[in-house]
Design a protein that fits this description.
Chain A: InterPro entries: Pept_HybD-like_dom_sf (IPR023430), Peptidase_A31 (IPR000671). The structure holds two protein chains of two kinds. By secondary structure, chain A is of the alpha/beta class. Chain A contains five helices and five strands; from the N terminus they run βαβαββααβα. Chain B is of the alpha+beta class. In chain B, about 45% of the residues lie in helices and about 20% in strands. Chain B has helices spanning about 50-55, 65-70, 75-90, 100-130, 135-140, 140-165, 185-210, 250-255, 280-285, 290-300, 310-330, 380-400, 405-420, 425-430; strands at about 10-15, 25-35, 40-45, 170-175, 175, 220-225, 235-240, 245, 255-260, 260-270, 350-355, 360-370, 375-380, 435-440. The longest helix of chain B has about 30 residues, at about 100-130. Classes of the chains: A alpha/beta, B alpha+beta.
Chain lengths: ~160, ~450
């Protein structure tokens, strides 16, 4: 991992499984040591407002739910190009969903140098619940562990370099 | 689209449907039927989620209200919070401290900034520069989009400062705020506002040069009007035909009613459609603009009060300038406090609130019991107040535009007219689909 400060953003809403991005941030924050070289943000349907966060980061991991008929809670890491080609125009506030926002940021040269998308599949965003379904809850734990390990490994690597 | 290439059409029916959207602030549809050179049917229907919130609020404690009503809109939660706390404080006979009143105005400045910047640059501007979206526009006009994003970010920063987050903030309460910003945070904000002041003034001049249609109309403007300042949070409720009332007198002059083609309530003033929003505000409060901003507006050569609805775009730009001007003043004189809210003693009562949301007048009424539980709530959002006016404008504007235009041109014109009001369905009207039927 490079020494550039990492920005991790969880995007979501309070609605059922759609809150998974927030849960990842909350659980990761609880596990990480204070010296971790990263900033964590949970954002509520930021629309184009996401760009102000992306613009100030060199490296960003973006966590979001992916609506799918697939098994819920499954981890996917879609490529940026693939996501930006998708049609999510109806999914965000005032017409700016994640794909539109990333497309706009790219047009303006405001994307981080490195951006990774970390997604979990969900079947629906239950507007009457603020709880994750068991399958997505398990998926969140798996994703948190995956991200945590990378961060810890990165810290160990940085320590070794500084000692060498 | 059906049957669009028959000979000698005697009539045609255009239906514009907005698909149901789950993560936006409303949904609507427009039905348009044209027979020869006459509009036979024009119906704007909006489904307004806020109606449910009134019922949700019943039986809730008064402290819960600001956080619940913030959920009504992702773009203007501050307006809902500020109107609710104003109404509840009136019901409890509580007068907010000077510090609270000033910081509420600053909080509100943040919302106007972010909402107007979003609307001008990402929603409306593509209409006037010939693009189908801000993404397409960004390639040719990156500086315009970046300016919009920077202003939106500045507004969001102000909201976050008081609300903890920019979408559905949680920092406001009946009596004040849960916390006071640190002086260093205010100082940083002040510097950013200073940097934005000049390019906000440029934005006004730039908007005045856009090819806005010349489309004069006759309409009634309704907005707040305060003694000395441009209205955000307080003032009498006035109209361009001479009305001047307190928010408590709303029901004597305004009426909400159902229409057969819409599940949302329509609001009428003296039985007629009326306009709320930036153009109505500016038309009624031109003399409340700070001199510097008024001089800048006058330099554009566009006169106000204006009867051209498309000057709403310019009015929003002026209000961005104003929000920055006021925020600069409020941050330059900021004094930290250990008491960001004053304790409130609930009592049985009725309270009314009226403030200026970015897209227009927002009115609340609450009845509370002795414990401060909500017995009843009424909320009249700006978008439902503008519904009848939008339909009226579409009727006239389409005739003026010319019904002999192509289906696509008619659709685009309808979208432009609707979007100009910045309704919460503007997200949906970007995706209007056109089904054309021609009758033999």
């Amino acid at each position: 991992m490079s020494s550039a400060r990492l920005l991790i953003i969880g995007v979501g809403s309070p609605a059922g499984d759609d809150r998974l991005g927030w849960e990842v941030i909350a659980r990761l924050k609880a596990k990480l040591p204070d010296e971790a070289n990263c900033d964590l943000w949970a954002l509520d349907r930021p629309g184009a407002g996401l760009i102000e966060y992306l613009d100030r980061a060199e490296v960003c991991w973006l966590v979001d739910a992916l609506l799918s008929k697939d098994t819920p809670g499954r981890y996917l890491q879609p490529g940026l190009e693939l996501l930006m080609q998708s049609d999510d125009r109806a999914s965000g506030s005032h017409g700016f969903g994640l794909a539109d926002t990333l497309r706009l940021a790219e047009r303006l040269g405001m994307l981080p140098q490195r951006i990774e998308l970390h997604c979990l599949t969900i079947n629906s965003a239950d507007t009457l619940s603020e709880q994750l379904s068991p399958a997505v809850d398990a998926g969140v734990n798996g994703l948190v562990e995956r991200l945590y390990q990378r961060l810890i490994d990165g810290m160990d690597h940085a320590d070794a370099n500084s000692q060498g | 689209m059906t049957d669009s290439h028959q000979d000698q059409p005697t009539s045609r029916r255009i239906r514009i449907d907005v698909p149901a959207l789950t993560r936006v602030e409303g949904e609507g549809s427009l039905k348009l039927a044209i027979d020869g050179n006459q509009i036979k049917q024009l119906q704007l229907s909006i489904f307004e989620p806020p109606r449910y919130f009134e019922k949700f609020l019943e039986g809730r404690e008064y402290q819960e209200v600001p956080d619940i009503v913030a959920r009504i809109c992702g773009i203007c939660p501050v307006a809902y919070q500020m109107t609710a706390v104003q109404a509840l404080e009136q019901a409890f006979g509580h007068t907010p401290s000077s510090w609270v009143a000033r910081m509420r105005r600053l909080f509100y400045c943040g919302e106007w900034l972010q909402s107007h910047a979003l609307h001008i640059h990402l929603l409306a501007l593509p209409d006037y520069l010939g693009f189908d979206s801000a993404i397409g526009m960004a390639a040719k006009h990156p500086e315009a989009v970046q300016r919009g994003l920077a202003l939106q970010a500045l507004g969001n920063s102000i909201i976050r400062l008081f609300g903890g987050r920019s979408v559905h903030p949680v920092g406001a309460c009946v009596g004040g705020f849960h916390h006071a910003p640190a002086p260093a945070e205010i100082s940083t904000l002040h510097t950013r506002l200073q940097e934005a002041q000049e390019y906000a003034a440029e934005l006004t001049r730039w908007c005045a040069l856009l090819p806005l249609p010349e489309d004069e109309d006759d309409f009634i403007s309704v907005a707040l009007r305060a003694d000395t300042e441009y209205p955000f949070y307080r003032g009498a409720l006035v109209s361009s035909d001479g009305l001047a009332i307190d928010a408590a007198q709303w029901d004597s002059h305004f009426r909400e009613e159902h229409t057969p083609h819409s599940t949302a309530l329509w609001s009428l003033y003296a039985g007629k459609p009326y306009l709320v929003g930036p153009l109505a505000r500016l038309n009624l409060n031109l003399d409340r603009l700070p001199k510097r901003i008024r001089t800048n507006l006058e330099s554009t050569g566009i006169g106000f009060p204006s009867r051209n609805m498309f000057h709403s775009m310019l009015a929003r730009a002026v209000e961005i300038e104003l929000a920055i001007h006021d925020a600069l003043e409020l941050t330059s004189t900021y004094e930290p406090t250990a008491h960001p809210f004053d304790p409130v003693t609930p009592r049985a009562g009725i309270g009314f609130g009226a403030t200026e949301a970015p897209r227009g007048l927002l009115w609340h009424r609450y009845e509370t019991d002795t414990e401060g539980l909500i017995k009843s709530a009424r909320i009249v959002p700006p978008t439902s107040q503008n519904q009848a006016r939008i339909e009226q404008d579409l009727q006239r504007s389409l005739q003026s535009f010319g019904l002999d235009h192509s289906d696509e041109e008619l659709r685009l014109h309808c979208e432009k007219v609707i979007r100009n009001y910045d309704p919460c369905i503007s997200c949906a009207t970007h995706f209007l689909t056109l089904d054309l039927e021609r009758r033999r």
